[in-house]
Specification:
- The protein is α/β, with parallel strands linked by helices.
- 40% of the residues lie in helices and 14% in strands.
- The protein has 2 domains: 6-221, 2-enoyl-CoA Hydratase, Chain A, domain 1 (Alpha-Beta Complex); 226-292, Lyase 2-enoyl-coa Hydratase, Chain  A, domain 2, CATH 1.10.12.
- It has 11 helices and 10 strands.
- The strands form 2 sheets. The chain has a 6-stranded mixed beta sheet, sandwiched between helices.
């Protein structure tokens, strides 16, 4: 697929998605949203991709948030479907059908797609990340930042509320107190504060950011089974919402049962005994379906 608001490349098993609207600010619009949804389908389907890095073009901004070029009407969708072509969610009597796909927050569609990724995802904040520029990265596995990066959960200052399912993700990452402070004040804060709060994995000089992200991607994936990583990612994220450890026990028992007889498991044991690097034969694209049935989750679409 050809992309216009992002750049996509794969090198040495690592996919790099670069937000790039050509102005150095990389504000989110409907086209960028749709292209991000599509590119994560592409990374999932490509067995050559072991991990994904998301960064921004230039040094000014990762993503400054929603495109505000529409002025005061930016967030007033009225009778227009905000992010879909499914028609208007506004009924003829003026009431709103909140189950209509046109009501759904576009940033939330992105975060839910990243949440479902079968590959590890790393954010590399090269510059300012405001609004959705921060919240869409919350379901990514690790966030690295340049010393030039700045963050702002500025929704209350724009008269709106946090989106992208941030109310679920953010307190789990930084605690409810810090999440409330950042969201209430809407203030812009530096990378060092984000690191101290647990939002970031590490902070780097600008020229060292992408090399550090790539090094982390290789560290995570070079010696592990891609199928095991995909399944582990799903298990750990899903575990955040489980009410009792028995739920996790049920899932991991199923996983160990099915993976224990896999070609990957045989290779993993053999490579250990033979003191050599493993070459795992199983492919995520072929094995995901057999594991997916273990999660008795409702349809949230």
């Amino acid at each position: 697929m050809a992309y216009e608001t992002i750049r996509y490349e794969v090198s040495d098993g690592i996919a790099t998605i670069t937000l790039d609207r050509g102005d150095g600010l990389n504000a989110m619009n409907k086209q960028m949203m749709n292209e991000l949804l599509a590119v994560f389908d592409e990374t999932d389907d490509d067995d050559a991709v072991r991990a994904v890095i998301v960064t921004g073009a230039g040094e000014r901004a990762f993503c400054v948030g929603a495109d505000l070029s529409s002025g005061a009407e930016t967030f007033d969708f009225g009778e227009d479907a905000a992010w879909t072509d499914a028609g208007s969610p506004v009924r003829t009597d003026g009431s709103v059908d909140f189950s209509h796909p046109g009501v759904r927050d576009g940033g939330g569609l992105i975060t839910l797609r990243i949440f479902a990724s079968r590959k590890p995802v790393i954010a590399a904040f090269n510059g300012v990340a405001a609004g959705v520029g921060t919240t869409m990265t919350l379901p990514m596995d690790f966030r690295l930042a340049s010393t030039k990066a700045r963050f702002g959960l500025v929704f209350a200052r724009r008269g709106i509320v946090p989106e992208s399912a941030a109310a679920w993700f953010l307190p789990r990452l930084v605690g409810i107190g810090k999440a409330l402070e950042w969201c209430y004040s809407g203030r812009v804060f530096p990378a060092d504060e984000a690191l101290e709060a647990g939002l970031l994995h590490s902070v780097h000089a600008p020229e060292e950011l992408l090399p550090a992200a790539r090094a982390l991607a290789h560290e995570l994936t070079d010696h592990s089974s891609p199928v095991s990583i995909a399944m582990t990612r799903r298990m750990l994220w899903a575990g955040l919402a489980q009410q009792h450890p028995m739920e996790a026990h049920r899932i991991d028992s199923r996983g160990v049962w099915i993976r224990g007889k896999s070609a990957d498991a045989s290779e993993g044991v053999a490579s250990f005994l033979e003191k050599r690097d493993a070459t795992f034969p199983d492919k995520v694209s072929e094995k995901w379906a057999e594991f997916d049935v273990f999660f008795d989750e409702p349809d949230y679409s």
